[in-house]
Amino acid sequence: MRKVLTISICCILFYSCKKSDSTTQPTPQIATVTTTSTSTVTTTSVSVSGNVSADGGATVTSKGFCWGTSSGVVISGSNYVNSGTGTGSFSSSITGLNPGTVYYVRSFATNSVGTAYGNELSFTTTAINYNVYVVGSLSGSSQDIAAVWKNGVLTQLSDGTRQAWARAVFVSGTDVYVVGFERNAANSFGIAKVWKNGVGTALTTAPNTASDAFAVYVSGTDVYVAGYEETGAGQVAKLWKNGVATSLTTAQTTSWATGISISGTDIYVCGYNTNNKATYWKNGTPTYLNFGNAVNGIYVSGSDITLVGTMGGGSWSWHNNVTTNFTGSNSFYSVSVSGADTYIGGNLNNLPAVWKNGTSTTLPYTAGGEVDGVFAIGSDVYAAGFDVNSGIFTARSWKNGIATDLPKPVNATGAAFGYGIYIAP
Any idea which fold 32-124 has? Predict the structure, then answer.
């Protein structure tokens, strides 16, 4: 009897041990993470909080937040920030955002199984109250008047006794620079001119020398203006630095400088040369393009160069030696870049239009019109030009496709045109 009991106890212990040895460990899962809040939203940043409530049975080696301008955001490229490891609450500050933009954000947690994403939250960065400067011309009772509008409020730069146009504007701090031309005292030919805060200075002082200015750029204390001067042999493209002129070409039948962009210490100017051959100059050295009649707009950022212009039968854009032709009835006059997006202003079938990354959008118009200047900042796109209604031309600006007609004074009896535009805080 005692032997039977001993054998029974041994069997129980054996089967008990065998059962314990066969128990499997739980399979690790992805972590459980929550996006808890967004706070302290500014024009370019936001604070975000999250929590990893369970690691899924595997150590959380990275946790943080990812964000974007479209819903369903995941980690892609550099759109994320790491905020530590392990479980528990965490927070981060996301910076470098665009003002007045809707963003989507969610938390993430990564373990050996993979990356888990939390719930998605949205927020809108604070918009900047930008000042909108548009320059152009008004048809006065006698002569055209150079004009600048700040947030729709008109300032006349000339008195209407001599023909004058304002073509481009640049704002540096509290100083507003406008360039264009005003005719000489005899009202017989135009003279390139720069107005600083409404006070005009002639760029050409030689007698009987016609000139014009098409672009202005301010870098530090240096003011650059692009245009041309007449010579006995023709028109010569010019770059003025602080009022001192440099010829970009020798005398040609026609050569003009139409745009300026500065990157670091490099000065880029665009225009045309050698009998209407599209050209851009870097620090005075020309590059001749094998197509097109003229470069009308330039934008340089770092080593990236974007040009737009015209040719017979259409227009073109040029980016780092890659050319895109746009056939049909269109003309390109200006270019602006914001982030990865390129915007071109011009006309399409005699209507005001802006192209975003090559796709055109016709802006509101009455019977026709044109975009001569475009300026993109953050997610906002501004344009300046004119609207046509029953043969009457009205200076107009557009913000994200919404049109605003610019006022005329009582002594401006006819047409009004917007040419250049600049957006500043």
Answer: Immunoglobulin-like (2.60.40)
CA pair distance 139, 412, nearest whole angstrom: 5
Stated as kind and residue range, the H or E segment containing 285 is: strand 285-288
Judge residue 33's burial from the number of C-beta atoms within 10 Å of its C-beta, 0-12 exposed, 13-18 middle, 19 or more buried. Answer: buried
pLDDT for residue 78: 92
* Delimiting residues of CATH 2.130.10.10 domain(s) in the chain: 131-424
CATH topology of domain 131-424: Methylamine Dehydrogenase; Chain H (2.130.10)
Q: What is the mean pLDDT of residues 64-82?
A: 96
CA distance 317 to 137: 28
pTM of the predicted model over 0.85: no
- The DSSP call for residue 21 is H
The amino acid present at 283, given as its one-letter code, is: N
Dihedral, 274, 276, 280, 285 alpha carbons, nearest 10: 10
Per DSSP, 255 falls in state -
Residues of the chain with CATH 2.60.40.10: 32-124
Question: HSE (CB half, 13 Å, CA atoms) of 404?
Answer: 17
Bridge partner list, 300: 305
- CB of 92 closer than 8 Å to CB of 46: no
Q: In the prediction, which pLDDT does 413 show?
A: 65
Burial class (CB in 10 A: 0-12, 13-18, 19+), 201: exposed
Range of lowest pLDDT (72-86, 196-210, 401-415)? 401-415
Q: How far is C-alpha 299 from the geometric centre of its chain's CA atoms? A: 9
The owner of tokens 């946790």 is 63
